[in-house]
Amino acid sequence: MDKPVFLDTIQQHQGILHKLCRLYRDSREDREDLFQEMIYQLWKSFPSFEGNARISTWIYRVALNTALADFRRKKPDITYTDSLPEQPDSANDAASAQQEQLFAALKQLSDAEKAIIALYLGDMSYQEIADIIGIDENYVGVKLNRIKSKIKNILKL
Asked: Potential cystine with 113: which of 47, 66, 109, 139 (Cβ 3.0-4.6 Å)?
């Protein structure tokens, strides 16, 4: 195991992991737990990475599988608080509000749809998405069009 190479790889691609954590988990604590689990699974499988695909493709595949497997295992926890969640202050700009709306819409998608759109937003090609998800490249385009339409309906665009 080459620990420095692994750590450098994770440092360069941690945005992928954070994006998937935010997409698949609601609370900060759950996102942190999922992030740690993704790192652990990547570390375990790092020696088996053969370099046949881009490292980012491999990271997406391991991270998505971890998010989906972890999601199936977990039972929802219901927590009650005495106060309302913090609202964004007026110093936040419109882009932040739009980003929150987009993530809220994305959370309404099925797990398969979330996986496809996350890869698409991660600048993956249709072929790379097809390889990771395990579907035909042409079907990726069909699914993306359906997902985009669904998001537009959710956002009422």
From this structure: 109
